[in-house]
Design a protein that fits this description.
Order of helices and strands: H
Strand content: under 5%
Bound molecules: zinc ion
């Protein structure tokens, strides 16, 4: 009696980059959700995150940081 037909596509995995949660269960007919719920993962936020990751990988800034300037000596430390 192993006639249980479990559909493997019942739940998708969340498509948000780096998210390993299962997508939200389908609430009705039509396409099932592609993102999990409760984390703010939507098509829009996933798109933004992908852009952010792509930009970070494509061109990393050469500066060490916004506070690391060459003109550190420009700050007058002398008091008279
Ligand atoms: Zn997610």
């Amino acid at each position: 009696m192993t006639s249980d037909n479990i559909p493997t596509t019942a739940r998708n995995q969340c498509k948000y980059p780096g998210c390993d949660q299962a997508a939200a269960p389908a609430t009705g007919p039509g396409r099932p959700p592609e993102y999990c719920e409760g984390r703010g993962h939507t098509k829009v936020t996933a798109w933004r995150e992908r852009r952010h990751l792509a930009a970070a990988q494509a061109g990393k800034p050469r500066h060490d940081g916004p506070g690391n300037r060459c003109g550190a000596a420009a700050f007058p430390a002398r008091r008279s």
